[in-house]
Amino acid sequence: MLAIDNLKKHFGFVKAVDNVNLDIAEGEIVSIIGTNGAGKTTLVNLISGYIRPDSGRILFLDKDITYASPYVRIKLGVGRSFQLIQLFSNSTVLDNVRTALFSKYGMIRRGLLPADRYSSVTEEAIKILDNFNMSDKKNLTPKGLSEGDLKILDIAIAFALKSKLLLLDEPTSGVATSDKFKVMDSIVSAIKKEGISTLIIEHDMDIVSGYSDRVIVMHEGRVMAEGKPDEVMENKEVKATVFGIVS
Amino acid sequence: MSKNPRWIIYLLIFIALLFIPRLLSIHDLMLFEYGITFAIVGLGFNLLLGYTGLLSFGHGAYFAAGAYTVAMIGKYFPKAYSLEILIPAALFFSLVLSIIFGFVCVRHTKIFFSILTLSLSMLLFALLFKLYHLTGGSDGLRVPLPTLLGVSFKGIRRPEFLSGTYYYFLLGMFSVSFLFMKGIVSSPFGKALQAIRDNEVRAELIGIRVRRYRLYSFIISGLFVGLGGALWTFVNGHVTADLSHWVFSGEIVYMTLLGGFGIFEGPIIGAIIFTYLKLYAMGNTQYWMFVIGATLIVLVLLLPNGVAGAVSSLWPKIKKKNN
Question: What distance in Å separates residue A103's CA from the closest CA in chain B?
């Protein structure tokens, strides 16, 4: 589904992403872990089109999207969430999701009938919120939500766009430790239901291991190790650099 | 829609408005009509400020476009001087002007947007002011009474015209504008504008072409303001280049803030209060600008959501007390 080929992005002397190769299969949940500055967010920014690479290629569904605009990528089905939450802060939770649906269906040009009249869209929005256990909060604005709920809503919006590939940048950062697993449970169960391919960026191995099919460890812009969560955990090099355990 | 108590209140207010000409003196009625035309202006202005998050300091330009269309047709094409031609013509010219100005302005946001709108409206001001032989310059143009569906109002004095046919015409135009704008802000299109207002980055990322939708909002806003300007000319009887001056644009901003831009009905209430406030302040003291300025300070410090915002935040408390 997604194939990254020798992708490179340097900021001056900093090799943020350095010759990274990566594949994600359909319906697969892949996590990228690594210390701060390992190049994880840069990689997500390259895939979602925020920044352009120096060299290398990104193929999505066999189309070359290396230099495509973010808008084109969204239309193709690459959705993302943000480490720093990006929401429509004065609109209700329902409208946050519903606006994404209206946009997805090309209905935002319709300017006369109230949004409530499009009941099928409203129902679909509620169903998406249901998937994330959020439908009871549909009439609140983001100001009244907990950090965990904000994260979930952020992802629900990306979800509403019917993305085929979701890029989740630190879905649990800022969430209280006790809520982290609850948040991940909601997100991953919704993703699995729809069979969406997902790339999760995290630095907490505990959170990642239970939810991903495959883990990729990045360090200083390069892929250091790759494999099933428990295999990666046992890798000596990973233990030393990422977890700081020397055995 | 009928189940919503809000619509029952709207209907009651509309019925009450039908009887206003019998209740108010001709002087107060004229003021009220000024208020209604500004209410239409406020509705349009607030689509841009309240729903799209863009503060224009040059909306006088579209007001002037509507007003000058009427006055110039009156001067140069007196045969076409009937309301059913004047209103579409005014809409057309304010449409053209807001497309041109909007195209330039929506490239920027925040203070840059405000300054651009201001400068462009001052450009129009300069034209209206300097092209004396066409526009009457600082003397402006007189606006005679129009005909409506072939009915001429010749021989009728302006106050009579304003308290009869024209009041109901104005009320009709206001109601249509109100319903249109209400539809727009609650439609998917309106939701897209609010998404842009709340978070431009995310709006782009859910597939909204932000700049294009800002332009749409700008144009619709300009149309409403142009309509308000055209309707205003008959109440005022005279147009001058000042309509495109930034001071006048500032008044549009002021009345919207006074009513509250966060609430749909805010600018309407603001427009009507402002009209009376300005006139009574002007009538009672030569320091009327001081009154207006002081009110603005009080407003910003104590009622950031305007009069309508204050009332609507009191409403739940009153309800609670009664229970």
Answer: 6
Query: What is d(CA B188, CA B193) in angstroms, rounded to the nearest whole number?
Result: 9
Assign B203 a pLDDT band (cuts: 50, 70, 90): confident
Instruction: Copy the structure tokens of residue B38.
Output: 């500004």
Most B CBs within 10 Å, among A91, A112, A141, A161, to test the B interface: A112
Residue ranges per domain, chain A?
2-242
B190 and A98 in contact by Cβ < 8 A?
no
CA of A240 vs chain B CAs: smallest distance (Å): 38
% pLDDT > 90, chain B = 45
Q: How far is CA A246 from CA A202, A211, A226, B53, B260, in A?
A: 22, 26, 20, 55, 63
* Span A134-161, pLDDT tens digits: 778 888 888 888 877 888 888 888 888 8
**Optimal mutation site among B198, B208, B220, B221, interface A, most CBs of chain A within 10 A:** B198
Q: What is the CA radius of gyration of chain B?
A: 20
Query: For residue B262, how many other CB atoms are within 10 A of its CB?
Result: 17
- Which CATH number does A2-242 carry? 3.40.50.300
Tokens of B245: 């001056």
The ipTM assigned to this model is 0.77
> Contact A43/A18 with Cβ under 8 angstroms?
no
The pairing of strands A29-33 and A197-201 is parallel
Pairs of residues, one from chain A and one from chain B, whose beta carbons lie less than 8 Å apart: 91
pLDDT reported for residue B1: 46
Contact between chains at B183 and A112 (C-beta distance less than 8 A): yes
Selected residues 153-212 of chain B with any CB under 8 Å from a CB in chain A? 180, 183-184, 186-192, 194-195, 197-199, 201-209
**Closest chain B residue to A48, measured at CA:** B205
Condensed to tens digits (0 to 9), the pLDDT of residues B284-323 reads 888 888 888 888 888 888 888 888 888 888 777 777 777 6
Which has the closest alpha carbon to B90: B190, B234, B213, B278? Answer: B234
- Under an 8 A CB cutoff, do A108 and B184 touch? no
Strand partners, A2: A24, A60
A88 touches B at CB < 8 Å = yes
- Residue B183: CB atoms within 10 A of its CB come to 15
Query: Are A212 and A3 spatial neighbours (Cβ–Cβ below 8 Å)?
Result: no
| Alpha-carbon Rg for chain A in angstroms | 18
Whether A99 sits inside 8 A of B186 (CB atoms) is no
pLDDT greater than 80 at residue A197: yes
